[in-house]
Amino acid sequence: MAFFGFKDIDKLSEVDMAIYRYIVDHDEQVPLMRVRDLSQGAHVSNSSVMRFIHKIGYSSFPEFKVSFKSENQDLMRSKSDVLNIIDRNAFPNDIEKTIKLVAHLMLDADNIVFFGMGGSGAIAEYASRQAASLGFNSYAVKDPFYPLIQQLHNTSNNVIVTLSVSGRTSEILETLNNFVNSPDTILVSITGNIESPIARIGRYALSYNIPETRIHKYYDLTSQVPCVYIVDGLLMELHNQDIDRKIE
C-alpha cells in the first residue's frame, strides 16, 4: 500500500478527494491526528474518513498513519534540494554585458538562426519562436545536415546562435566551420563549456557552469535550465533594446 502512489484516483468521490487533498497539504500533521481531527480539517464526517482509509487499502486508521509517516519521510529524504539546480555562480561575472552585446547584434540582423541538436534543438525552437514573436526574422535549425550554407547564400547580416551543452558536437562544428570566415555571418554560442571548440570559433560565447550528466554513454541528462535562463535573458534584452530604439 502506498498513499502517494495510489493509482485509482478516478475511483475516488468528491468527498474522498477532499480528504486526499487535505492529507497531502498537511502531511506533517496527519501522523499526529485522530480521525476526528482529520474529519474536521477536511470538513467531512468521521465515517467518510474511515471509508476513505479502507478504500485506499488500509484496515485501520493507526495502520494508515504508520505507513503514511514512513512514506512521507522517505519522500522528504529523496526530494531534498531537487530545485536547487542553479544559482548566480553558474554564470560568468560578465554574462550581463555579453548578453547586451549579443542582443545588439541581433537587433539589426536580417536573419537570426538558433542552431542545436537534441534537447538544445528543442530550446532553439523555443528561442526562435519567441524572437519571431518580438518581430524578428528568426528560425530554428535542429538538423546538422540541413543546407544552412545554401540557405544563407547571397544573404548578409546574419547571426547564428548555437546551443550546445558540451560545445564539442562534431556535426555542429562541421556546419559552423562554413561560416567562420564569413563577413556576412556572426557566430554566437550558448554552451556549458567556455573552452570548447564551438565556444572558441564564435565572436561571443555565452556560457554557464553545470556538471554534465550522461546515462548509457550516449544519453545526455544535463540540466538545460541554465541555457533557458540565458535564452530568456537574451530575448528580454533584445526586446528592451528594440523598444529603446523606437523611442529615440
Automatic annotation (TrEMBL):
The record's section on Pfam families has: HTH_6, SIS
**Boundaries of every SIS domain copy:** 102-244
Q: Where is the HTH rpiR-type domain?
A: 1-75
Q: Note whether DNA-binding occurs among the keywords.
A: yes
Q: Which UniProt keywords apply?
A: DNA-binding, Transcription, Transcription regulation
SUPFAM superfamilies documented for this protein: Homeodomain-like, SIS domain
What is a single molecular function from GO for this protein? DNA binding
- State any GO BP term from the record: carbohydrate derivative metabolic process
InterPro entries noted in UniProt? Homeodomain-like_sf, HTH_RpiR, RpiR-like, RpiR-like_SIS, SIS_dom, SIS_dom_sf, WH-like_DNA-bd_sf
The answer on whether this UniProt entry bears the keyword DNA-binding reads: yes
Ranges annotated as spanning the membrane: none
Q: Which PROSITE patterns match?
A: HTH_RPIR, SIS
* Name of protein: Transcription regulator
**Origin species:** Companilactobacillus paralimentarius DSM 13238 = JCM 10415
Q: What taxonomic ancestry is recorded? A: Bacteria, Bacillati, Bacillota, Bacilli, Lactobacillales
